[in-house]
Amino acid sequence: MGKIQCSPICVGCTILGMASLAAIVGLWTVQLLPSTESRDEPWKSYRLPDTLVPTYYNITLWPRLHPDAYGLFLFTGKCKVVFTCLKETDLILIHCNKLNLTSFDGHLAKLSAVGTAVAPSIQKSWMQEVTQYLVIQLKSKLRAGEHYELYTEFVGELADDLAGFYRSEYEENGEKNIHDGKPVTVTTFEPTKSMSSYLLALVVSDYTNVTSANNTLIRIWAREKAIEDGHGDYALNITGPILKFFEDYYNVSYPLSKSDQIAVPDFYFGAMENWGLVIYRETNLLYDPLTSSNANKETTATIIAHELAHMWFGNLVTLKWWNEVWLNEGFASYVSYLGADFAEPSWNVWTQSLYLNPMMHCGKMRQN
Ligand SMILES: [Zn+2]
Q1: What gap in Å lies between CA 128 and CA 283, rounded to an integer?
Q2: C-alpha span between 55 and 49 (Å, rounded)
Q3: Rounded mean pLDDT of 68-94?
Q4: Around ion ligand 1, which residues have CB less than 5 A away?
Q5: Which residues carry out catalysis (predicted)?
Q6: Is 175 helix (H, G, I), strand (E, B) or coil?
Q7: Cys bridge to 315: 4, 32, 145, 275, which one at CB 3.0-4.6 A?
Q8: CA 359 – ligand 1 centroid, Å
Q9: pLDDT tens across 182-203, in order?
Q10: Ligand 1 centre from 237 Cα, in Å?
Q11: Active site annotation includes 307
């Protein structure tokens, strides 16, 4: 990544590509829960039918961090989802929103069989925008117990809209970080555990980090200057003890091999507990010992404890449907005080907990 000096009036910006919440896999959920809605036109129902269940997704994304000739930031991608048919059906519904899908022989996806099954031909495919589905009607039925693979390619806009795969920018020191002339780097991720799709996140950025590793790799990511100035150190120092506390409290090991936490300047929500990559509004994760208030430090400790509590409660054990999200938030809020108290026993956080709003942190409360 190259850096150029700009005049003071030049608005410096760096572009982050990020996906969170209902992000990539959220766009590509085949089926999670049974539907009680009418079967007449299932694509008009917001609840997915109970005929198919996803096994895994293999997704490739290429965000363009410079605008094209029309001033648009785009990303391209391809997605393979392998799924199992639970009940025979001639209909595939898959969440898809604001993507231009590549056409294959006049259809918006390719269907193939896995193993001995024979894949039906596609009769018709279209985008159902209101309910955000790609709808695929087949000429014959998928068979229960068989596995199939759905393949799509797409172009989307990396918009500054905090939804799906989106763009976030920040200014720093009148410098504009650019990516011209550099080869594209491909990053390949390990398969995730089976998880709710709203918890997936990835970030493309020029950030640096501070790190520590015991059993779990812990990293705090932020703007280079913020890391240089030590603003990530407090979060780093308390994350290890809080994770250890929750491991003992839940009596379950931390479920992942790493714990990343990242500070995003204009993140709309207080924080979001994406599994293994928690995203925070910058002021909630970073702490400047020279200028931050004690209240700020307390907020940082409590929110970190809240989000890390979700790594087990909410992520490892996930709600069945959104009407149970209060369980996620209520319990994470309760144990956040236990975690913060463990990290900072001299604060007596329990004496203040009555005054705090337990639902203030997590993004999904307002997104879903
Ligand atoms: Zn929460």
Answers
A1: 39
A2: 16
A3: 96
A4: 329, 332, 361-362
A5: 307 (proton acceptor)
A6: strand
A7: 275
A8: 7
A9: 678 899 999 999 999 999 999 9
A10: 21
A11: yes
